[in-house]
Amino acid sequence: MGSRVEAGLIARIFGAICLSLLATSVAATCRDDQVHLRGDWGEARFRVEVADTGASRATGLMHRDSLPQGAGMLFVYPRPQVAVAFWMKNTRIPLDIIYMDSAGRVQRIAHKAIPYDETALPGGRGIQYVLEINGGLARSLGIGPGTELRHPAIGEDAAWPCE
Asked: Distance between CA 128 and CA 62 in Å, rounded?
């Protein structure tokens, strides 16, 4: 009978250790240089540069010849904006421009924005985060309105908070 009690105790301790390691692993994946997206289509992760100053947001991905697959740029505004619009002036790479609200929920996507095009691509009202990735990836992955983004920059309103 003593061995059953010991076995049960060992199993509970082992389970607690595994849960602790899993929680640490999940928390460790929420980093400044990565975003995670999830929706009914599944999940995806991108390595990102964060543009969170006026100067870095103004420059964005302009003047670059390529963007590695699995990479992107996350634009972070200090609060939801009255109106956000991007354009492709001096941008050489076709991009998907993903506009999100203060909770990190996708509201709109400008698919395959055309390099050098100066046409404004509006994201709408209440946009606080914008993710740029290689053109065509959003559709191929299934990213659409309602998709949730997780990143440390998203505050207490996060639909998918960092833990």
From this structure: 20
Mark whether 71 and 128 lie in a shared domain.
yes
Q: Which domain holds residue 11?
A: 1-30
**Do 72 and 107 belong to one domain?**
yes
Question: pLDDT below 50 — which residues of the chain?
Answer: 5, 7-28
Of 106, 137, 148, 141, give the one whose Cα is nearest residue 124.
Answer: 106
pLDDT of residue 1: 54
Q: How many other C-beta atoms lie within 10 A of the C-beta of residue 95?
A: 29
**Digit-coded pLDDT (tens) for 114-140:** 999 999 999 999 999 999 999 999 999
Q: Are residues 93 and 117 in the same domain?
A: yes
Could you tell me the CA-to-CA distances from 121 to 46, 61, 89, 109, 153 in Å, in that order? 22, 15, 11, 9, 24
Let me know: does 124 contact 107? Beta carbons within 8 Å: yes
| 38 and 23 assigned to the same domain | no
Q: Say yes or no: 6 and 61 in one domain.
A: no
Q: Are 29 and 36 in contact (CB under 8 A)?
A: yes
| Strands 106-113 and 95-100, bridge-based pairing | antiparallel
CB-based contacts of 37: which residues, under 8 Å, 6+ apart? 43, 44, 45, 46, 131, 141, 143, 147, 148, 149, 150
Report pLDDT for 163.
82
